[in-house]
Specification:
The protein has about 350 residues and is mainly α. Helix content is about 70%, strand content about 0%. The longest helix has 29 residues. It is elongated.
Length: about 350
């Protein structure tokens, strides 16, 4: 089967062993979406294990509630087991997978290199004869931005869609109905699976103490990103559809969406990075800690440099800030298929498949 070729059999085998013990115990039945899905089956294919791994949000509540963790002979550590399968399901369905592997092992170095290279490219374009545009477009023309960023966005999205197609086949996905999508997006919008089953939160950073901070930081990051994307989309519509040229005023939709989104994104990513520093690495895939942290910090640089660019646009720092911001955005787009950004797409697919299985 395709699954056997794509994901390490040792990781899948260990996750299956632990899931079978969980299915016999059933103590954690109401904790998150993973356990009802586990309890709905008696045997688990490799695709089932990958789907379950992407349902897991690594909240760790099951670990601290479990009576079979080490030093018990069963030695359960389900968050870690599922994290290792989940990681491999992301990076090995992405092509070329070698880039994903490098990112997750040396994410900080790769991100820094791509950001600096992209910033240098933007700076060289800025150094060309200036255009007659206003605001930022006096430094870099609108057409130059389109030529640079449209391929940098569309090609990574295409790679993500191709990887999702392979993953969907692996987990046995069926024809998608509207109700499946609505149910999955409902879970994502509320971050339902980070609520600890009873709304008290998860145990990510505080061991057996409950906290909703991770849930709130995730929501700030997600909604901040969506607002920034909305700002770009609305500005594109205004530019091409309504012939309303940038720059736009503070109370325009692009600015309101962009500034509020940037603030939420900066708060969310900084909060997630701080929680990640406190969390026990032994309950996750420790091999890729650096890559995950690099992705969070790259998002932070994108949002914070964008805010700085807006508020310091009248200063002598404009050229450098524009190069840094556009370089960070370009790096984010280029690395998107190989970074943890894809976890959102894979988790959505896993949640849709979960809705199908419930039907």
């Amino acid at each position: 089967m395709q699954t056997i070729e794509l994901v390490n059999l040792d990781a899948i085998g260990e996750a299956r062993r632990q899931i079978e013990i969980c299915n016999a115990c059933r103590y954690c039945e109401s904790y998150c979406a993973v356990f009802p899905a586990v309890h709905s089956k008696r045997a688990y294919s490799d695709g089932d294990i990958q789907q379950l791994s992407n349902l897991c949000h690594n909240c760790r509540g099951c670990y601290y509630a479990c009576q079979y963790t080490a030093p018990h002979e069963f030695g359960l550590n389900l968050p870690k087991a599922l994290a290792e399968v989940r990681q491999e399901s992301w990076q090995n369905h992405t092509q070329p997978s070698v880039i994903a592997t490098v990112f997750h092992r040396s994410g900080a170095a790769l991100s820094l290199f791509v950001v600096l290279a992209a910033a240098l490219l933007v700076w060289l374009i800025q150094a060309a004869p200036k255009s007659s545009g206003e605001g930022f477009y006096s430094l870099m023309s609108h057409n130059a931005m389109v030529v640079l960023f449209v391929p940098a966005f569309t090609l990574p999205i295409l790679l993500i869609l191709l990887s999702l197609r392979g993953y969907w086949r692996t987990i046995g996905g069926e024809s998608i109905r509207w109700r499946h999508v609505v149910g999955a997006f409902g879970s994502i919008a509320k971050m339902k699976n980070l609520s600890g089953g009873h709304g008290d939160g998860c145990n990510f950073e505080a061991e057996d103490a409950f906290s909703n901070r991770r849930r709130l930081y995730h929501q700030a990051t997600m909604y901040g990103f969506l607002l920034c994307f909305a700002a770009t989309s609305v500005a594109t519509l205004m530019h091409y559809g309504l012939d309303m040229q940038a720059p736009y005023g503070f109370f325009s939709l692009p600015k309101l969406f962009g500034i509020s989104g940037g603030v939420l994104l900066s708060i969310g990513t900084l909060g997630l990075a701080s929680l990640k520093l406190k969390a026990d690495r032994g309950l996750a895939d420790a091999r890729v800690w650096g890559g995950e942290m690099a992705f969070v910090l790259l998002l932070f640089v994108v949002s914070t440099s964008g805010l700085a660019l807006y508020f310091l646009r009248e200063t002598s720092l404009l050229d450098e800030l524009l190069a840094l911001h556009l370089g960070a955005v370009l790096a984010f787009f280029l690395l998107m298929p190989f970074s943890k950004m894809v976890h959102g797409f894979f988790r959505l697919a896993a949640l849709i498949r979960d809705e199908q299985c419930k039907a």
